[in-house]
Amino acid sequence: MLVAPAKTSLDVLEMAQAGHFDQIRDMFAAPLRAMVTAEALQAAWKAEVDRLGPITSVGAPLSESAPGGVVVKVPVTCERGGLTLVVSVTSEGQLTSLQLASPGTMEPIAPWKAPAYADPTSFEEGDVTLGSSSLAVPGTMSLPRRSGSHPAVVLLAGSGPLDRDETIGPNKPFKDLAWGLASRGVAVLRFDKVTFAHSGEVRANTEFTLTDEYVPPAIDAIAMLRGQPSVDPARIFVAGHSLGGTVAPRVAEAEPAVAGLIVLAGGAQPLHWVIVRQIRYLASLDPETGAASEQAIEVLTRQAQLVESPNLSASTPAGELPLGAPASAPIHNVREVIALP
């Protein structure tokens, strides 16, 4: 039986107060454990306690839905101030992130507001379904109302189980983009990632790859736009953000009808080295606690090196690979899950 997310967050707080940081680490989802060390957790906790003093009271947790699970915020009062413990919990009860934030973080997530540059009267939106298999995903198509043959854009979200709007907290950057472009005569199709719409089925498929995650729905989206009378089939573009930008060339390779690519903060490194770089950068932001991350950085570096080593094989334990990539998959798929060849 799964523990409620609010109870999980309070358990984390109790473990931190008791100094059981190894137990907190073990609560993280398997792919993330290599990036989290008990030492780093302890250092971050100690820095806050030294600054604010001992805890004097704990308030009621506030739970909010988020892609892939729930975000729980716990108000904590200390002798010399306060903080908010922010815990992201998956539907399986595992941790995906842990933050010690300011007291103001307790405020509920504000509702999304249309950007000033969008004119909702200038376009129409409708729900669509991409694909016909068990992994079909829902999406939204935005079509300009003005007459003429319009260019179009398919949006590819970044890494993780993101919805069609790329919702993160109060922000919906893909909805902002879609409404802004559609207001200016550009058709847009955005869709929920398969890892958001079918997380359980994808997780159970050890041979599921990066190409499987992005390319099929993108091709279906392009075909759907090509079938719209108001869309110019020769001017359909693909815009990818972050990992979506990194993968966008694969879509163009699979679908020659793509007129061009728009890469928004796409990664220029193989994913396994991106992970090392990002963790090293985060550790550098706070030298006081960053030193405790060196062990995790060393582990991630060894895992990244193994990806490029001739010693990588189908029998390599998942725990020795970045993000716990399944070694049970065919070897070319293992590399594709965690890297871009």
Written overview of the protein:
This protein is an alpha/beta fold. The chain folds into three domains: 5-106, Nuclear Transport Factor 2, Chain: A, CATH 3.10.450.590; 120-264, Alpha/Beta hydrolase fold, catalytic domain (Rossmann fold); 271-338, no CATH class. The chain is built from 13 helices and eleven strands. It has helices at 5-18, 21-26, 30-33, 38-52, 173-183, 194-197, 199-204, 210-226, 243-254, 271-284, 287-290, 294-307, 331-338, and strands at residues 55-58, 62-66, 69-78, 81-90, 95-101, 123-130, 137-144, 150-156, 187-191, 231-241, 260-264. The strands form two sheets. Strands 6-7-9-8-10-11 form a six-stranded mixed beta sheet, with helices on both faces. A hairpin with a 2-residue loop joins strand 3 and strand 4. The longest helix is centred in the middle third of the chain and has 17 residues, at 210-226. It is globular, with a radius of gyration of 22 Å. The two termini are 40 Å apart. Mean pLDDT is 87; it is low at 329-341.
